[in-house]
Amino acid sequence: MENTREDILHRSEAAVGIVYCKGEILLIKRMEREDDPWTGQIALPGGFSRPGEMPQETVIREVMEEVNMGFSKESIFAQLEPKSPNRASWVKVYPFILKAESLTGYSPGPEVSEVRKVRLDVRVPSHTESGYESFIFQDWIVWGLTYRILVDFIAFENKPV
Q1: 133-137 sheet: strands from edge to edge
Q2: 57: burial class by Cβ within 10 Å (0-12, 13-18, 19+)?
């Protein structure tokens, strides 16, 4: 679903999927679009909820639309604490961990220019030119909301059982 500036003003819930398998996750590069405030950025697959849609349903639908991987509600391993983008504080984003058997068979959907499988243990902590904390995965810079969600995920993953 498109995320024009006008759409964002009228929506309040979204969900993202941390598609995870054996220390690796999927990241997407958003398609370059003039009307998208997050155009071209690196993100987790996800998007806005439709009217009446639960966040769990949103994440399953959006992951299928953006990386062409099918999951069920039973695939949801955990939900992390919801967060809001700094530029859209009225939006609540629900992060879900989706455990995959393998990270194969993914491909970019129409709103995504590229999908990459990245190892979490090779992230490089850094800062953007504007001074925001970030991770670098190869030549992709993850910052903002996606960075904050990944920090929570890494803390969750490293919690003693």
Answers
A1: 124-127, 133-137, 140-143
A2: middle
Residues contacting residue 130 through CB under 8 Å, at least 6 positions apart: none
Please, which residues have CB within 8 angstroms of residue 125's CB and are 6 or more apart in sequence?
133, 134, 135
> Which token pair is 81?
């604490």
> 1 pLDDT band (50/70/90 cuts)?
very low
Cα–Cα distance, 70 to 114 (Å, whole number): 18
At residue 66, what are phi and psi to the nearest 5 degrees?
Answer: -95, -30
pTM of the model: 0.88
Tokens of 39: 């155009």
Domain 5-157 has CATH 3.90.79.10: yes
